[in-house]
């Protein structure tokens, strides 16, 4: 591919642009409707989705068009439970009718729907459906690293199983997982560390929260506003991750030079590559006098809608 | 003041909103014209400034209005030197006529004018005038900290001299300075460390680049898009900063609890407070399960136009 000939900096900038393509001129943003519950915006509904929802007037009401327009839940759905159930029924029907291909990836895993992370959840929604409503998703990503005896830093990476629904076979952070309804970040962190890499809780608990990586992209499945809560986990020299629940096929311990090179390749899950880029910046592995897009990298890793 | 009764989280969020008020609905953004050199946008010109520039048609051309409009430099100004000199002549005249109060703070210090930090500079401009054109300013901020023998982290802060032009007498990072035309970040870092706190180069060089803090605010002096390159500098236990060029009146070594409390007070220079907040997040002193606005903090510290 032509892009493989680009300098590293351009490839990294291209990654951030791609993962923030909903912000770019020409995106569907101006044609999306706000998704509104109880008067508060909780997402963006692409036009193709909005038109399919008009069949369900007992659940969704629609007003205006484009950015000025809204798809709202009917006022009769006045509780968390009622909203979650009514939307779920619609989604199950659309899934059976095979209206949206993303619903083929139904997971029976619920995500909370909130105006902001700090707000009370207004409903929960099947994970595979959130992109149809541009509902923000949250997750936990763990940079697993070691400080070698000579002081150099190496990083543990995982390779996703070939049977994963999304990004099969690509490189990933040591541990990562979505934030399911009703769980805290700390619980998610400890659970995913145990399940994906057999990291015992006594080690996982030493992970340090160091910020978030936020971005919004769109593709044929809809709109993906996401924020990943990032943790750095310094692993003991004698520790080796083990394959747990089968979501990972292999682990690698690589020097940061190699990690830096591979994060801009097609071989790396893109949002996890962003988490690694953030690590390299925070750990002074990228220097602002030497990296022309340094400032663009930092803002591109932290974009909110 | 009523705000002093708010919880810490709300005060910190209010700080970030204030420092990004150009992004808020109701800001002058929709009435500003793009400032354009060689076809590339390098700033935002508030309406009151644009109207004063029409007197100088040999330097500035104007087209359209509001966000769709532009103030451009005349094509005859076809070099860095010509542009810098022509604009400087206009600014000197406006200064003599006392047209804009910000020009009373003329510093004889030039900043580069660039579409992006990585681009070649198109001209340089007096520091005190950049807000009239919404030209982005860059600086270096240093979090000076210590790791005490018991492992706890304390932070060195400075108190600005009462005679400083901007934010006299407020708390500030240990060292901070604007990026003058023709200097690198590393040079600025070492020079400011020496001048402001008598930190020798052999210590200053150990400062670690850890990202940027970016924001855009507006006030009666114009538009301030700024990016600060942030460095963490771990200082030896035996080191004490000394007053250098007189821009600082005092230094304090405080526990992070006290630093966290004071950063949301009126006593702290606002952009430096943002740099400290970024430090507290990166060093896991703020935990995402305990801080409701964690994600808003991280994105609010890294906003680009």
UniProtKB/TrEMBL annotation, chains A, B:
GO terms for molecular function: 8-oxo-dGDP phosphatase activity. Pfam families: DUF4743, NUDIX. Residues 135-276 form the Nudix hydrolase domain. Signal peptide: none annotated. CDD domains: NUDIX_Tnr3_like. InterPro entries: DUF4743, NUDIX_hydrolase-like_dom_sf, NUDIX_hydrolase_dom. This is Thiamin pyrophosphokinase 2. It comes from Scleropages formosus. The gene is tpk2.
């Amino acid at each position: 591919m032509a892009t493989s000939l680009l300098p590293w900096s351009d490839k990294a900038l291209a990654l951030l642009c791609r993962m923030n393509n909903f912000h770019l001129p020409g995106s569907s943003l101006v044609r999306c409707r706000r998704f509104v519950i109880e008067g508060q915006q909780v997402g963006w509904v692409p036009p193709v989705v909005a038109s399919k929802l008009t069949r369900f007037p007992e659940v969704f009401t629609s007003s205006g068009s484009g950015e000025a327009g809204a798809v709202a839940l009917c006022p009769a759905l006045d509780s968390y439970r009622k909203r979650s159930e009514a939307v779920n029924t619609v989604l199950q029907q659309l899934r059976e009718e095979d209206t949206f291909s993303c619903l083929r990836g139904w997971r029976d895993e619920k995500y909370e729907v909130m105006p902001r992370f700090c707000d009370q959840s207004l409903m929960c929604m099947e994970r595979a459906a959130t992109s149809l409503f541009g509902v923000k998703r949250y997750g936990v990503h763990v940079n697993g690293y070691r400080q070698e005896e000579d002081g150099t830093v190496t990083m543990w990476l995982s390779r996703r199983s070939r049977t994963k629904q999304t990004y099969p076979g690509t490189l990933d952070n040591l541990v990562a997982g979505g934030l399911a309804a009703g769980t805290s970040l700390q619980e998610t962190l400890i659970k995913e560390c145990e399940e994906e890499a057999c990291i015992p809780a006594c080690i996982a608990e030493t992970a340090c929260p160091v910020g978030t990586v936020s971005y919004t992209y769109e593709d044929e499945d809809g709109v993906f506003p996401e924020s990943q809560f990032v943790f750095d986990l310094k692993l003991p020299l004698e520790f080796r991750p083990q394959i747990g629940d089968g979501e990972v096929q292999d682990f690698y311990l690589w020097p940061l030079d190699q990690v830096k090179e591979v994060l801009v390749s097609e071989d790396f899950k893109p949002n996890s590559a962003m988490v690694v880029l953030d690590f390299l910046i925070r750990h002074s592995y990228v220097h602002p006098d030497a990296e022309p897009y340094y400032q663009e990298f930092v803002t591109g890793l932290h974009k909110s809608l």
